[in-house]
Amino acid sequence: MPALRPPASVALHPEPLESLLIPSTLDGSVGVNRAIDGRAQIAANNDLDAIRAWLSRFHDTKTTFESYRKEAERLLLWSLVTLGKPLSSLTHEDCLRYQQFLADPQPAATWIAGGGRKHPRHDARWRPFYGPLSPASQRQAVIILNALFAWLVQAGYLAGNPLSLSRQRTKHAAPRITRYLEPGLWQEVKDTIAALPRDSDRARAHAYRVRWLFTLLYLGGLRIAEVGANTMGQFFVRRDADGTLRWWLTVHGKGGKERLVPATREMMMELSRYRQQLGLSALPSPSEETPLVLPINANAANDRAQTCAPLTRAGLHAIVKDVFAQAAARLRARDGASTRADLLEKASAHWLRHSAGSHMADKQVDLRLVRDNLGHASLTTTSLYLHIDDDRRHRETEDKHRIDW
Predict the structure, then answer these.
(1) How does strand 258-263 pair with strand 235-239?
(2) Is 208 in a helix, a strand, or coil?
(3) For this UniProt entry, which segments traverse the membrane (predicted)?
(4) CB atoms within 10 A of CB 348
């Protein structure tokens, strides 16, 4: 198939949605797939406004909004730049071609950020991709775009969903979680953290912060976004059915769902260590707005602990990836070529969440308790009457899920 050239009026380098200028001939106002029955339920008259209307439903969930914007933006830009046609004129064949494009976005200079780096959206080096998408990422992109097209059809903007004709492959569940650290490899990571330098104030602050971050990700099973979005004031204490005082952390998580994470003795000790290193009181107050993890230069002495902005997801990811890289380097220095080191270099913060779940299951923590600890199922009204179950969940987590620094 000969390559399709974009019209001269379209920029060769795609622009983010907020700065994208689309010529009237390509804006979708007369797209061939536009609904013509006059019963549109949104006010959008062009493709960009229709996408904005769809995205507006997710503004209160930052992670979901950014993920959905990314996929809609990529398809719109590809349609304009590569095919020279509006989104509302895409056919089923176009969508199949786009799925092939996701596996290898070419030309790379047009579509892929240099070095695979993520540049700010206002930066001239910004590109829609950081590299080819894995098969799993391709499937996720298609799922999101199918939801976009289906909503636009339901809203009366499009006549039909060009993706709905695609053959739906049955997704077979993996026989087991593979992206986790077996106990021996997890010990290598903990040993690496224990060996972090403490020969300066900054190095010492970094070492305390790393240890606390890994405690949250592993003992609490928190997602990286949850670490950045929650505060120390969400720790609270309550008395269980036996009269024992137990600490909990209220986590506002994915999709706006709320769950209670058992704050075990280990977790509270690590929190106290981290806070005292910052010059804060050992335990947080209920109204405290201090982020769960702070920048290095935040401390009580300069009143920045409660008022500073939390670390970004990218910043937290960078800390975790650096620790994994150091652990891999230690393994190679000791063992030479090592598949275990290769595995560590692939690991991300989410592997710690999977590791937490796997290790709890290995130690025979009731799987229903693991589910609730990780927030895999939302709490129902009935759970308000099951305090004894919460108490048992806390006890079993306390007894069987440990970090053992």
Answers:
(1) unpaired
(2) helix
(3) none
(4) 14
CA distances (Å), 386 to each of 34, 212, 380, 389, in order?
A: 52, 31, 10, 5
Question: Do 98 and 168 form a contact (C-beta atoms < 8 A)?
Answer: no
For residue range 206-252, list pLDDT tens digits in order: 999 999 999 999 999 999 999 999 999 999 999 988 889 999 999 98
Q: At 167, which amino acid appears?
A: R
Confidence (pTM): 0.58
- Residues 133-173: tens digit of each pLDDT: 988 889 999 999 999 999 999 999 999 999 987 555 545 44
Which token pair is 325? 């890289």
CB contact set of 48 (below 8 Å; sequence gap of 6+): 17, 20, 22, 27, 28, 76
Cβ–Cβ < 8 Å for 344, 321: no
The SS3 assignment for 189 reads: helix
Residue among 297, 295, 238, 232 nearest 267 (CA): 232
Q: What is the DSSP string of 252-281?
A: E-GGG-EEEEEE-HHHHHHHHHHHHHTT--
Per the CB < 8 A criterion, the answer to whether 262 and 393 are in contact is yes
For position 36, what pLDDT does the model report? 82
Q: Is 336 exposed, middle or buried (0-12, 13-18, 19+ CB in 10 A)?
A: exposed
Given a contact cutoff of 8 angstroms between Cβ atoms, the answer to whether 111 and 128 are in contact is yes
For 19, 70, 99, 226, 249, the CA distances from 125, given in Å and listed in that order, are 14, 16, 24, 29, 40
Task: Return d(Cα 275, Cα 311) in angstroms, integer.
Answer: 16
For the chain, the 3-state helix, strand and coil shares in percent, each to the nearest 5, are 55, 5, 40
According to DSSP, residue 90 is labeled -
Show the domains of the chain with their CATH numbers. Answer: 17-154 (no CATH), 183-400 (1.10.443.10)
Among left, alpha and beta (phi > 0; psi -120 to 50; other), residue 255 is left
Distance CA 219, CA 222 (A): 8
> Residue 239 to residues 232, 245, 284, 316: CA-CA distances in angstroms?
20, 4, 18, 33
Question: How many residues would you count in the chain?
Answer: 405
Q: What are 249-275's pLDDT values in tens digits?
A: 999 887 778 889 999 999 999 999 999
